[in-house]
Design brief:
Blueprint (H helix, E strand, L loop, with lengths): L1 H27 L10 H9 L7 H9 L1 H14 L2 E3 L12 E4 L2 E7 L6 E8 L9 E6 L4 E5 L7 E7 L3 H7 L3 E5 L1
Helix pairs in contact: 2-4, 3-4
């Protein structure tokens, strides 16, 4: 009887180890689903210029199509200014974006060719000064930049031309949101 119990225990242990090994093999070949973003955190990130988003939220916005779509929908509903894709007939860098009382101009820096000035002028609502800017690529990365206070109705930034924010602003296929 002891031999029979030992045989059953050994068979059970072997089957359990085989099942664990199979599970490990299945999990090793698959990616874990992305962590879900909290709608509350997503909203705070969209509307509060000083809010510091978690890496989970930033990763979800940039990698998970559902989260990205939800966030872009939220931006469409909460942004004061939305500058859609640029309809450009020519190739090369664009000089400005304009929509609904807001204009963003791009000027090369004379002191450093690797830098550019971004000048934001919002004439539609003079009591409003944007605090944050989002640059959204179609199915691509979403960049966010906290903006300095406006001076004489203008916000001026100095960006490295090779930065993702500068490249996004100059890309005719991106959209810009100011909040």
């Amino acid at each position: 009887m002891a031999d029979r119990n030992s045989t059953i225990t050994a068979q059970f242990a072997e089957a359990a180890l085989d099942a664990l090994s199979t599970t490990d093999d299945l999990l090793a070949g698959s990616e874990r689903p992305p962590a879900k973003a909290s709608p509350t955190e997503m909203y705070a990130y969209a509307v509060d210029p000083t809010f510091q988003a978690s890496s989970t939220l930033r990763n979800a916005i940039n990698t998970d199509p559902g989260t990205r779509a939800d966030f872009h929908h939220m931006l469409n509903n909460t942004a004061r200014y939305h500058l859609p894709q640029v309809a450009a007939a020519s190739t090369g860098d664009i000089e400005s974006r304009e929509a609904g009382g807001c204009k963003i101009s791009f000027r090369p820096s004379r002191a450093n060719a690797d830098q550019m000035y971004v000048i934001i002028e919002c004439n539609g609502d003079t009591s409003f000064s944007p605090g944050v800017m989002f640059v959204v690529g179609l199915g691509e990365q979403t960049d966010r930049l906290e903006l300095p206070p406006a001076q004489n109705g203008r916000i001026q930034l100095l960006l490295e031309r090779g930065s993702s924010m500068a490249e996004g602003l100059l890309n005719i296929k991106t959209e810009v949101y100011l909040k």
